[in-house]
Automatic annotation (TrEMBL):
CDD domains: DHOase_IIa (cd01317). It catalyses: (S)-dihydroorotate + H2O = N-carbamoyl-L-aspartate + H(+). Keywords: Hydrolase, Metal-binding, Pyrimidine biosynthesis, Zinc. The keyword Hydrolase applies. The active site is at residue 306. HAMAP family: PyrC_classI_B (MF_00220_B). It comes from Alicyclobacillus acidocaldarius subsp. acidocaldarius (strain ATCC 27009 / DSM 446 / BCRC 14685 / JCM 5260 / KCTC 1825 / NBRC 15652 / NCIMB 11725 / NRRL B-14509 / 104-IA). The lineage of its organism: Bacteria, Bacillati, Bacillota, Bacilli, Bacillales. Pathway: Pyrimidine metabolism; UMP biosynthesis via de novo pathway; (S)-dihydroorotate from bicarbonate: step 3/3. Substrate binds at residues 64-66, 96, 279, 310, 324-325. This is Dihydroorotase. SUPFAM superfamilies: Composite domain of metallo-dependent hydrolases, Metallo-dependent hydrolases. Its EC number is 3.5.2.3. NCBIfam families: pyrC_multi. Belongs to the metallo-dependent hydrolases superfamily. DHOase family. Class I DHOase subfamily.
Length: 431
């Protein structure tokens, strides 16, 4: 069946702007069939979307879905519903589950269950080292065969440079990216917060060199091996400079930045509330500005939420003992639209590129663009609607966000993946 949406503003990926047009998609083929004047587009069903905008489905290459084994924090169902509610049509989930995604059967099971749930599409990311222990490489060939997006020990860095070199050599041959959590643990020593926030609040500090030192090492290794190195959650000015250096040398390095590292700094942490604890820690105002400038100019390629749900009891253990992480899927778009686009700091075309087009292009995924023939991965948003972030209304099981109570503009109303509705505002939570 062909469905046509009339009266809204549609993102034209070629133009990089909204146009006043109708868009039609086919629920059987799952593709966009036409964009243009309604009189020129035959349809079986017509719907008015007056006052709303259509964007290409968002794609997040870095989330934690906690399934298998940590389902008190999140399940595949709650995480993928939260993703769809945030406008994400595809997400890639990190392997720090229990057991970790180190075997092909575990990745296959996530893909199969994800399809059954029928919300956002899930792409597992597999371990770089067996069970993320940093001692031996995982079986990349077997994991690549079942279609993992890439390899990462996220939550931990690979401490042994020689082992990382071996990993990148193999991944270069396989054509799969290494998605690195850059943290030299001999420097970070498990520190909870940025140096200044730690001093202020009497907790342990994580020096910024812990991140930058490992990025420097891995960029040099990527140059030697020819592998695609994707740097996760860049947070410091020195790290930004290193990514820029790598790109300027023609090394295959890409990078992501989170909404929280673009919008918050250590200065915002006024009390020892572990909802502010995230790894890498919220950094200085200068670091935040460097990330923002690098995001605006495309050096930091994509937005990733690093959605990291935790149980409230775990977050209540105090700053030093609580686990790192913040949820992000349901608030990312509104936070960035409100804080960056409406403030005139970043144009809409860069945000759409970073949330939809570029992650698809860099990781070889379908979707990411609105044009005839492309997969109908669409988000319907109300760009005028103001709402207040209320964690108790989230679809994710996680409530851990420092953005609770914040007023934002821009609401996801409906999400379509391959021509099928995967989220409609107000729908019931999956169990
Ligand atoms: O804050 C974080 N939480 N950073 C990470 O790298 C891991 C994540 C988690 O798994 O909770």
């Amino acid at each position: 069946m062909r469905i046509r949406w009339d009266g809204g503003r549609v993102w034209d990926s070629g133009l990089g702007d909204f146009i006043e047009a109708s868009v039609a998609y086919d629920t059987e083929t799952g593709d966009i069939v036409a964009i243009g004047h309604p009189s020129a587009i035959r349809a079986d069903e017509v719907r008015s979307i007056r006052g709303l905008c259509v964007l290409p489905g968002f794609v997040d290459v870095h989330v934690h879905l906690r399934d298998p084994g940590l389902t008190h924090k999140e399940t595949l169902a709650s995480g993928l519903q939260a993703a769809a509610a945030g406008g994400f049509t595809q997400v890639a989930c990190m392997p720090n589950t229990k057991p970790p995604i180190a075997r092909a059967e575990i990745a296959e099971d996530i893909i199969r269950r994800g399809r059954e749930i029928g919300k956002a599409e899930v792409h597992p990311i597999a371990c770089l080292t067996v069970d993320q222990e940093g001692e031996a490489l995982a079986d990349y060939e077997a994991l690549a065969r079942v279609g993992v997006l890439g390899f990462s020990d996220d939550g931990r860095g690979v401490q042994d440079g020689g082992l990382m070199r071996d990993a990148l050599t193999k991944l270069a041959a396989l054509g799969k990216p290494a998605m690195i959590h850059a943290e030299d643990e001999s420097i970070s020593r498990g520190g909870a917060l940025h140096e200044r926030a730690a001093a202020r609040l009497g907790t342990t500090a994580q020096p910024g060199s812990a991140e930058a030192a490992m990025i420097a090492r891995d960029i040099l290794l990527a140059e030697e091996t020819g592998a695609h190195l994707h740097v996760c959650h860049v947070s410091r000015e020195a790290s930004v400079a290193l990514v820029r250096f790598g790109k300027s040398r023609g090394i295959r390095v890409t990078a992501e930045v989170t909404p929280h590292h673009l919008l918050l700094s250590e200065r915002d942490i006024h009390r020892a509330d572990a909802n502010w604890k995230v790894n890498p820690p919220l950094a200085s105002e200068e670091d935040r500005r460097a990330c923002l400038a690098a995001f605006a100019d495309g050096t930091l390629d994509v937005i990733a939420t690093d959605h990291a749900p935790h149980h409230p009891d775990e977050k209540a253990r105090g700053m030093d003992e609580a686990p790192f992480g913040m949820v992000g899927l349901e608030i990312a778009f509104a936070l960035l639209y409100t804080g960056l686009v409406r403030e005139g700091l970043v144009p809409m075309r860069r945000l759409v590129e970073a949330m939809s087009e570029r992650p698809c292009r860099l990781f070889g995924l379908e979707g990411g663009q609105i044009r005839p023939g492309a997969r109908a991965d669409l988000v319907l948003v109300d760009l005028d609607r103001r709402w207040t972030i209320d964690p108790s209304a989230f679809y994710t099981k996680g409530r851990n966000t420092p953005f609770a109570g914040q007023s934002v503009v821009g609401k996801v109303v409906e999400t379509i993946r391959a021509g099928r509705v995967i989220f409609r505002e107000g729908e019931e939570r999956l169990s």
